[in-house]
Here is the input.
Amino acid sequence: MLRSSADVPDRRRRTPGTSPAPARGKSAVWRASAILGACLTLLTTVLVTFGAGNAAAHGAVSDPPSRHYGCYHRWPNGPTQQMATEDPMCYQAWQADPAAMYNWNGLFREGVAGNHQGAIPDGQLCSGGLTFNGRYAAMDKVGAWVAPSKPSRFTLNLNDTSSHGADYIRVYATKQGFDPKTQAVKWSDLELVGQTGRIPTGNRTPVEVNAPGRTGHHVLYTVWQASHLDQSYYACSDVNFTDGGTTTTTTPTSTTTSTTTTSATTTTTTGNPSASCSARFLVTSQWSGGFQVEARVAAGATAISGWTVSWTFANGERINSSWSAAVTTNGSTVTARNAAYNGSVGAGSSTTFGFVASGTAGTPSLTCTAS
Here is the structure.
């Protein structure tokens, strides 16, 4: 008797205890689902790993806290009604973009090459020139930011979570009369009040700040040039100066100290009959065997397109590093020429360059030539 194919027994042998192979159509679907699940798992792992690595990198000013750092550490769980009442500027920042707080250690730009003023427009200093597509734009907002009290002389701390180290760190303070509640920070509002030369890697990096002549709410602006790449970090920290700006005099020791002592006289010359410039030195830090100088170059009544400052060291001082100028040495004579980005100076305006030197700071006579 003939039997249909449905009546024919399955003679394929299989190992006892195993399930029969799935049907061909179901098997293909099962395989595709398994592959898709594996890919999603891998993608999720990559994203989580990248996010965690990003959060663990870089750094920020922690004391006095930069605006984005402070908003995260005071309110790690995000916006609340209590925050809206007690800390309205952080409240608006959290509402604008929570990623700015979760990435408190990532406010930086790459490839600036020391031209910070050229890269960051006035009014956008606190956001690093709207870096990362404006993620930190809320930090530029004017208002009643929380401002811890500080004397005019104190130690600023930078939390270098990845131990990048620094080619230099510069700290500026707004001038007396500036009102952070009504004014966005511009470069012309700032004066240099603390600076380091090259420093090694370390999780906590102190910078001595000396900002005399200030009382009330001010903004400190920190520029941290990391050593590992051309990577520049920026931070606005709010402070309330409480001691009337008393100046403290210090004696150089083996520990870095900050001073604001004028260390040079000025001579004005000109290479352009209609233009002139003047220069002065300010010792911003000194220690046993070395010192740092901020040099300010000012244009006269006519705008200039370039400048050269020269002087002679009398006591064997030696330049170790410099910034914002091309510095050359011939014996004891030093010549500093403007960089490409700071040669043009408006009438009555000024620009700066600086250097770190070994030896003891003296009082050289400066010659400034304009073009």
